[in-house]
C-alpha cells in the first residue's frame, strides 16, 4: 500500500515527517518505451492499467524515451551492487550486532540466491566483478546522473514510471 511505501521510505531516509498524499492532477509523469519493452504479458497488462489509472486521476503522461546514457544505468548499478554487496552486508550485520556473518546469511539463502552469490558476489567468486570493472562503472555514474537530471528537466517531469520487474512472480 501507499502507507507501507511511506513507512519504508521514512525508515530508509531516517525521516519521520510524512507528507500527505498529493493529487495527481497536472503532475507530469515520464513514460519511456525503453522500460516498457520485452515485458511479460502480465507485467505489461498491470503496467498499462496503472498508467491508465494515473492518467484518469489527472496525471499527464509524457511519452519520452530515455537517452543511451540512461539505458546503461542498469548495467552500471548492477556492477556496482555486485561488487559492494559482500562488504556492505558484512558491515551492516556487524554494526547492528546481528550475530551472523555474511557467509552465514548466504548459506541460509534459497538455492537461486545462494548460487548467484557463490558465482558473482562472494569475494573470490569465479564471475565476481573485478576492481577494474567496478572503478569503470563508478566513473560512469556522473554522466548517468547528468542524463537522468536532463531527462527530468527537458521533459518537465517529476517522476519516471516503469515496472520494477519484467517478469511476474513465479509460483
Task: Please characterize this protein's 3D structure.
With 171 residues, the chain is mostly helical. The chain contains 9 helices and 3 strands; from the N terminus they run αβααβααααααβ. It has helices at 2-12, 33-36, 41-56, 68-71, 73-95, 102-107, 111-121, 131-139, 141-155; strands spanning 28-31, 60-63, 159-161. The protein has a 3-stranded parallel beta sheet with strand order 2-1-3. Helix 5 (73-95) packs across helix 8. It is globular and about 50 Å long. The model has no long low-confidence stretch (mean pLDDT 90).
The N- to C-terminal Cα distance equals 22 Å
Number of helices: 9
- Helix coverage percent of residues? 55-70%
Reading the helices and strands in chain order gives HEHHEHHHHHHE
Rounded mean pLDDT score: 90
Largest sheet: 3 strands, parallel
Oligomeric form of this entry?
single chain
What does the radius of gyration come to?
19 Å
Low-confidence stretches: none
**For the largest beta sheet, what order do the strands appear in spatially?**
2-1-3
Strand count: 3
Structural class: mainly alpha
Q: What is the 3D shape? A: globular
Question: Percent of residues in beta strands?
Answer: 5-15%
Give the tags.
single chain, 171 residues, mainly alpha, 3-stranded parallel β-sheet, 3 strands, globular
Amino acid at each position: 500500500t501507499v502507507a507501507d511505501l511511506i513507512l519504508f521510505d521514512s525508515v530508509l531516509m531516517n525521516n519521520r515527517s510524512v507528507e500527505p498524499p498529493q493529487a495527481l492532477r497536472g503532475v507530469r509523469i515520464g513514460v519511456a518505451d525503453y522500460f516498457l519493452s520485452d515485458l511479460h504479458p502480465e507485467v505489461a497488462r498491470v503496467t498499462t492499467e496503472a498508467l491508465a489509472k494515473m492518467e484518469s486521476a489527472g496525471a499527464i503522461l509524457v511519452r519520452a524515451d530515455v537517452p543511451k546514457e540512461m539505458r546503461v544505468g542498469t548495467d552500471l548499478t548492477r556492477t556496482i551492487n555486485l561488487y559492494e554487496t559482500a562488504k556492505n552486508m558484512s558491515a551492516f550485520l556487524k554494526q547492528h550486532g546481528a550475530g551472523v556473518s555474511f557467509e552465514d546469511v548466504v548459506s541460509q539463502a534459497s538455492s537461486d540466491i545462494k548460487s548467484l552469490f557463490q558465482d558473482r558476489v562472494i569475494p573470490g567468486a569465479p564471475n565476481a566483478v573485478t576492481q577494474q570493472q567496478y572503478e569503470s562503472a563508478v566513473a560512469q555514474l556522473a554522466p548517468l546522473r547528468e542524463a537522468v537530471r536532463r531527462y527530468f528537466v527537458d521533459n518537465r517531469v517529476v517522476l519516471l514510471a516503469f515496472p520494477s520487474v519484467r517478469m511476474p512472480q513465479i509460483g
